[in-house]
């Protein structure tokens, strides 16, 4: 048995390198998605935002929706303008929240299938060695094929399972942010209706 990482990957057959690449890409996308979702809506106090607005400071990164609403409200423009501008900003932010979600889902689905392909390849190698070798040398060929089958399966699952779990946590965070955006939009629409009435 190979005790080095490279030896372990080599025993996984031809699918090991693509699985490692998928794993690296998956975690890169998870990191990007985490950054986008963390910046989605910061939980900074309203008083600090109002103070910054009074000083004429631009909107902090990730604070565009509420900041836009405060600026329009402070300018004295009508509720209809506030509702339209906030709705547009919410739509843009909602689109950004989806960044990386599809890629994560695709990679999580592909990893175990690629591991299964390695399993099939290893089993084919195992059965081929049974037919090609003399009785005394069969165990080496059999063991190599079985090793490839098991290692590739394991690599596929090692990539997919954590990616699936983390992807689900990020999806829940996205849903929380979407619900927050819906509440903001409802608040702005209610404010716009009050001004019209």
Description:
The structure is a single chain. Helix 2 (16-40) packs parallel to helix 7 (138-196), helix 4 packs antiparallel against helix 5 and helix 5 runs antiparallel to helix 7. It contains seven helices and no strands. The protein has one domain (12-196). The relative contact order is 0.16. With 197 residues, it is mainly alpha-helical. The protein is rod-shaped. Helix content is 82%, strand content 0%.
List keywords for this structure.
0% strand; mainly alpha; 7 helices; rod-shaped; 82% helix
Query: What is the helical fraction, as a range of percent?
Result: over 70%
| Structural domains: how many | 1
Which overall shape is indicated by the principal axes computed on the Cα atoms? rod-shaped
Number of strands: 0
Which sheet architecture does the biggest sheet show? none
Mean pLDDT: 77
Radius of gyration: 27 Å
Structural class: mainly alpha
Please, how many helices?
7
What is the strand content?
under 5%
Give helix and strand order, one letter per element, not per position: HHHHHHH
* Distance between the amino and carboxyl termini: 78 Å
**Quaternary state, please?**
single chain
**In terms of per-residue confidence, which ranges show pLDDT below 50 for 5 or more consecutive residues?**
43-47
Helix-strand layout with pairing:
Layout: H1 5-10, H2 16-40, H3 46-54, H4 64-75, H5 79-97, H6 101-132, H7 138-196
Helix pairs in contact: 2-6, 2-7, 4-5, 5-7, 6-7
């Amino acid at each position: 048995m190979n005790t080095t990482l490279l030896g372990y990957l080599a025993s996984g057959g031809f699918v090991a390198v693509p699985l490692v690449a998928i794993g690296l890409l998956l975690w890169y996308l998870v990191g990007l998605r985490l950054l986008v979702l963390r910046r989605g809506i910061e939980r900074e106090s309203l008083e600090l935002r109002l103070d910054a607005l009074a000083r004429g400071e631009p909107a902090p990164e990730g604070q565009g929706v509420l900041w836009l609403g405060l600026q329009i409200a402070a300018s004295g423009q009508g509720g209809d303008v506030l509702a339209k501008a906030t709705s547009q900003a919410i739509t843009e932010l909602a689109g950004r929240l989806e960044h990386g979600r599809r890629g994560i889902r695709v990679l999580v689905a592909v990893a175990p299938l690629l591991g299964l392909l390695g399993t099939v390849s290893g089993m084919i190698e195992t059965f081929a060695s049974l037919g090609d070798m003399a009785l005394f040398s069969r165990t080496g060929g059999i063991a190599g094929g079985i090793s490839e089958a098991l290692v590739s399966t394991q690599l596929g699952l090692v990539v997919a399972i954590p990616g699936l779990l983390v992807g689900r946590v990020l999806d829940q965070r996205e849903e929380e942010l979407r619900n927050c955006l819906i509440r903001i939009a409802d608040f702005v629409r209610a404010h716009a209706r009050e001004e019209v009435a």
